[in-house]
Amino acid sequence: MAKNTSIKQLPDGYLDKTPIFQFILLSCLFALWGIPVSLNDILITQFKSIFNLSDFASALVQSAFYGGYFLIAIPASLIIKKTNYKIGIIIGLAVYILGCSLFYPASTMATYTMFLAAILAMAFGLSFLETASNTFSSMLGPKKYATLRLNISQNFQPFGAITGVLLGKYLIFQEGDSLHSQISKLNPEQLHAFRLQQLMLTLQPYKYIIIILAIVMVLFLITSYPNCKPTNTKENIVEKASFSETIGYLVRNVSFRNGIIAQFVYVGMQTAVWSFTIRLALELGAQNERDAANFMLYSFLCFFMGKFIANVFMTKFNPKLVLFIYSVIGTLTLLYITFASSFHAVYAAIFTSILMGPCWPTIFANNLEVVEKKYIEIAGAITVMSIVGGAVVPAIQGYVSDHLHSMQQAFIVSAICFAIVGIHFLREYLKHNKPAV
């Protein structure tokens, strides 16, 4: 596909205009990693019953997923730095396909560890995609609209998340009684056959994902993209920084460091809320997993709607102030979930998703803005690595649930995390909007 010669790359790596087709194709990747994110929430519930896991052990699905992001983000960033964003995306798509393919042997072997290995491999590919795509989206046009572009791209993610829930609801979850109720009525021989049958169902969504990924990979292979890398010109001399120098600089950068902490607890909170919404609904009276999956569908619809609402607010008011207010409301909502005495707690969990949408892209874009250009690739990778919070916080919430014997009360963990996010946004707002003396 021919390059758009009317669009010029500026010395700082940004473009003077946004190439529409390339930007839309890039934004579609955000939907493609939204699918496995929501499917993980389905798998947590499925594996808990089939493998008879504790809440902590079932949360290891997220630990494998986000742990994969953490392990591969720096290597991915170094490869992208030496090549370009497009190559990073193609590598990510290829490894993503490989990870999905591992669900075939996992379903046959019927062991929890093999499923975790497949999820880990899939996350390696997704880490390449996110490391490349988040930064690439922010740079694919004029610099002043970098945060807006990233937020627009992030708006594609809920479409993928909704698709993942629908795939899980209709291809994995079945009608009838809950899995726990069905399993309790089976003898050992029937139970073994039932478990094998249910595990084979987990393979079904990934067959379709592989086909979609193959089509998208072909489109990227034939589509031309600008490098969006700063050039060494008189107007824009960019020095090369070593890895150790970059890490030292980022550690000393207080705004960047605080942003990493905020991203860690935010992603952990978001992942924990979504991981255990189905479990919360079942605990409070939902009939079965398929019915409970509807609440995840509503959550992602709210997440999608919340992004648009937040974009409107952030164009009229200071984004950091908006997100501080969102965090306060979110913390109070999660506290209500923890202590409510009715099924309304599930609806509160759904409402929380409205408040989540703008946090990740805003923190990510702000982290790139506060670092020098020669450190930007590693800074982007470390920000992606911070989503390892999604591996840690759900496990903590699962552990608390096991010890309190209540998933509902364990939502206090998520409430604490949202409060920490709010403190970060308040601190950043006050730093840049000090009252006149």
TrEMBL record:
Coiled coil: none annotated. SUPFAM superfamilies: MFS general substrate transporter. Keywords: Cell membrane, Membrane, Transmembrane, Transmembrane helix. It comes from the Bacteria. The gene is fucP. Pfam families: MFS_1. It is found in: Cell inner membrane. The chain crosses the membrane at residues 20-39, 59-80, 87-104, 110-129, 205-225, 295-314, 321-339, 345-366, 378-400, 406-426. NCBIfam families: fucP. This is L-fucose:H+ symporter permease. It is a multi-pass membrane protein.
